[in-house]
Specification:
alpha/beta; 7-stranded parallel sheet; two-stranded parallel sheet; 10 helices; 13 strands; 16% strand
Length: 323
């Protein structure tokens, strides 16, 4: 009998890749979508597999809705990928961020505890939980002190701790995957990687003339979403529920991202990039680099993409769509 999976945020970048991956493995896949008044593009990442999915409109802040869907689906696995996920915007709407990311997670955990305790639960945790804390060797890992510096990071830390508490307190199979930054052509264009790539291609073809960015010196551990959703399933199906770090172990700055992208397109980023204070955060995470040794050695996970091949794929996507 096929396993049944429920994915919150199925129409997002990670949700769409995870849905494809689970379908390929023979899962019956269900997903929750938050309805928007503009219907034309809200499911475009999953339109190509829509006929294979079971979709529901819902909102994690509505506990009655969450209960109803979990009661109906009775999933073997729940992947909580839904979130208010834009770090800078979280400073503008902190209450909404906390309600969605923290209380939304609590609603799912309570529903599982009360009506589907057989379900395995995966929480999409974030490297933003570390803030600016980093170990002496330049890495962040499970033992690194977490001290977030944004409402987003704080909301994710609460959800992370709730997931651990329901595992130890209620003996549920709940796991955290602390995923470092991961991108793809499906990434929203307000996020810096796809913003840089799309705008650079637009500049090449004369659609735009400049690219406005914030801090060029913040550094991130960037991987590909496709690689990271494969890690999610491995985490949830490990015999012992626990927490893991998923990362490439390499870090690049926004400046590096700009330099590589514009070079690939035959341009110098210095001729086009303008820094604007409105894109700076109230408090910046300066450097992220994850130690994913455990998941590589224990679960056999390793990324198929490099930073360069990921950016190349994103460039190819936008060139094919814009030129």
């Amino acid at each position: 009998m096929n396993k049944v999976a429920l994915i919150t945020g199925i129409s997002g970048q990670d949700g769409s890749y995870l849905a494809e991956h689970l379908l390929d493995l023979g899962y019956e896949v269900h997903g929750i979508i938050r309805r928007q008044s503009l219907t034309e593009r809200q499911t475009e990442r999953i339109d190509h597999i829509d006929h294979k999915l079971n979709l529901y409109y819902g909102d994690l802040t509505d506990e009655h809705c969450v209960y109803k869907i979990i009661q109906e689906v009775q999933p073997d696995e729940v992947y909580n990928l839904a979130a208010m996920s834009h770090v800078r915007v979280s400073f503008d709407i902190p209450a909404f961020t906390i309600k969605t990311n923290s209380l939304g997670t609590l609603n799912i955990l309570e529903a599982i505890r009360n009506i589907a305790p057989q379900s395995k639960f995966y929480q999409a945790s974030s490297s933003e939980m570390f803030g600016n804390n980093i170990d002496d060797d330049g890495f962040q890992r499970l033992s690194t002190t977490m001290n977030p510096v944004s409402p987003y990071g704080s909301s994710k830390l609460m959800a992370y701790n709730l997931t651990k508490q329901y595992r130890t307190g209620y003996k549920l199979h709940t796991c955290n995957g602390i995923l470092f930054n991961h991108e793809s052509p499906r990434r929203g264009t307000t996020f810096v990687t796809n913003k840089v790539v799309k705008t650079a291609v637009e500049i090449k073809y004369g659609i735009k003339t400049t690219l406005e960015l914030g801090n060029l010196d913040s550094s991130r551990d960037w991987g590909h979403s496709y690689d990271y959703v494969r890690a999610m399933r491995l985490i949830l199906n490990y015999e012992t529920p626990r927490d893991w770090v998923v990362s490439t172990g390499e870090t690049k700055s926004v400046r590096d991202l700009c330099e590589y992208t514009f070079n690939q397109l035959g341009m110098n980023y210095k001729d086009y990039v303008i820094q604007d204070e409105k894109y700076f955060r109230k408090e910046e995470v300066n450097y992220l680099r994850g130690d994913s040794t455990e998941i590589r050695e224990t679960l056999g996970w390793k990324p198929k993409y490099t930073f360069n091949t990921m950016i190349d794929e994103m460039i190819d996507f936008w060139e094919s769509n814009l030129k």
